[in-house]
Amino acid sequence: MKSLLFVFLVLGVSCNFVNAAPVGKTQIIEAAIKECKGLTSLINPSVVRSSAFFPEPDGIVAVLIQGIKPPPSMKNQVGAELCLYSLHEKTARLANWDALARSKGLPTYIRPPSNL
């Protein structure tokens, strides 16, 4: 009887491990976008293009976010920020994409917001 109870216990525990699905790429990207939008100071932030996903060895998700620059002195200018989300640390870091694009001669990918 004890051996039968042990078998059911082992099967029950192993079924829990089988049913625990690994986190998918889309769930990781959604978490990165949520974290990046929460961190940015831009007003009405939105994702400009699809994010870049670098799972190994770096474990980084890159998201380009655009929105309205917050101070009133900016006169509702559109700005962009590059957000790098670390999969290992579960933290995000922002960089001003406008300044990076100007210094490196990169395209800005900024489109005018529809709500202005």
Low-confidence stretches: 1-21
Order of helices and strands: HHEEEEEH
**Helix fraction by DSSP (H/I, runs of at least 4):** 25-40%
State the distance separating the first and last CA atoms: 73 Å
Radius of gyration: 21 Å
What's the number of extended β-strand segments?
A: 5
Largest sheet: 5 strands, antiparallel
Secondary structure class reads: alpha+beta
Specify the number of helices. Answer: 3
- The coarse overall form would be globular
* Beta-strand content bin: 25-35%
Q: Could you tell me the mean pLDDT?
A: 74
Keywords: Signal
Signal peptide: 1-20
Protein name: Lipoprotein
Walkthrough of the structure:
This protein has helices spanning 2-19, 25-39, 97-104; strands spanning 43-47, 52-54, 60-68, 78-86, 91-96. The protein contains three helices and five strands, in the order ααβββββα. The model is unreliable at 1-21 (pLDDT under 50). Strands 1, 2, 3, 4 and 5 form a five-stranded antiparallel sheet that branches. A hairpin with a 5-residue loop joins β2 (52-54) and β3. The chain starts with a helix and ends in a 12-residue tail after the last helix. By secondary structure, it is α+β, with helices and mostly antiparallel strands. The chain has a domain at 24-104. Keywords: Signal. This is Lipoprotein. It comes from Pseudomonas synxantha. Residues 1-20 form the signal peptide.
Structural descriptors:
116 residues, alpha+beta, 5-stranded antiparallel β-sheet
